[in-house]
Design a protein that fits this description.
Elements: H1 3-26, H2 32-49, H3 55-64, H4 67-72, H5 76-91, H6 94-118, H7 131-146, H8 151-165, E1 170-171, E2 174-175, H9 178-196
Antiparallel strand pairs: 1-2
Length: 197
Amino acid sequence: MNNKELEAKRQLFHMLLGIAIVALLIYGLINKTHIFFLIIIGIIISFLSKKYKIPAICWFLRNFDREKDLKSFPGKGVIFYLIGVFLTLSFFPLDIAMPAILVLAFGDSVSHLFGIRYGKTRHFLTDKKFLEGFIAGLIAGFIGAKVFLPWHEALAASFFAMLAEGLEIKIGVEQVDDNIIIPLVAAISISIIRILF
């Protein structure tokens, strides 16, 4: 499988995971405690996957994980995604957390796919991403957030989250995963807009 195919599958999963989480939150079938336990289970499975081939997990990782992560941190993307969701649910009420999760689901996925396929102009904050991806992610994140928010809150959430996605935020030598940054920045943006307006 080539890189573009893998990334398309990864981003589709990324989008569906966010939609599923929000749907389960709406119906009260999960909460932040469930997400926390999923993170712990994910970390344990990741550790075990480095040593053992767990049938269904092995298939999933082979079909959705990047080669570098398979060797160092299997399932890294899903685990960090869940950490971003957990932190957002921990610090913000549901009416802010759910649209922030949808900005992650739609904005991040579309920006990545669109940037890889159609990107020509380098992003003004990083040379690893494209301006076309930023704009597509901004629109997609806005549409996702607009399900729950008035237009000005949805626009702020998507704009600042996609802006933050272009930053390379590091703690020590490690770059902070954008699956953590995007929903938190979106939620902070919504909160600030509500205070100001």
